[in-house]
Amino acid sequence: MNDLIINIDKIHTTELGLQRIKKNLALENVDVINWCKQKIRIADDIIRRGKNWYVQVDNAVITINSYSYTIITAHKKV
């Protein structure tokens, strides 16, 4: 189990982060934080590169700062 899963309760984002994630993933009427946490729990791949975690799940990549556990962005895989 990696540090991201162990500290999943610390995951949060900013107001701008919420807007960016909703726009990039076309999410509406969704609790973005809980959506991301659920996706992290079932992730296909979780990689730490430098200061960020990159979570690949379904057709999305979620980027999380590894020190603050802030969700920076999420986008659809190309």
Q: What do you see in this structure?
A:
Pfam families: DUF3781. This is DUF3781 domain-containing protein. The chain is of the alpha+beta class and 78 residues long. The chain has one domain (3-76). It is built from three helices and four strands, in the order H-H-H-E-E-E-E. The chain has helices at residues 3-6, 15-25, 32-41, and strands at 45-49, 52-57, 60-65, 71-76. Strands 1-2-3-4 form a four-stranded antiparallel sheet. A hairpin with a 5-residue loop joins strand 3 and strand 4 (71-76). The longest helix has 11 residues, at 15-25. The protein is globular and about 30 Å long. The relative contact order is 0.24.
Give a summary of the structure in a few sentences.
The chain has 3 helices and 4 strands, in the order αααββββ. The model has no long low-confidence stretch (mean pLDDT 94).
User: What proportion of the residues is helical, as a percent range?
Assistant: 25-40%
Q: How many β-strand stretches?
A: 4
The average pLDDT score comes to 94
Spans of at least 5 consecutive residues with low confidence? none
What is the count of DSSP helices, taking H or I runs of 4+ residues? 3
Radius of gyration based on Cα positions: 11 Å
Give helix and strand order, one letter per element, not per position. HHHEEEE
The end-to-end distance, rounded to whole angstroms, is: 28 Å
Largest sheet: 4 strands, antiparallel
Beta-strand percentage range = 25-35%
Strand order of the largest sheet: 1-2-3-4
Which shape, going by the Cα principal axes?
A: globular
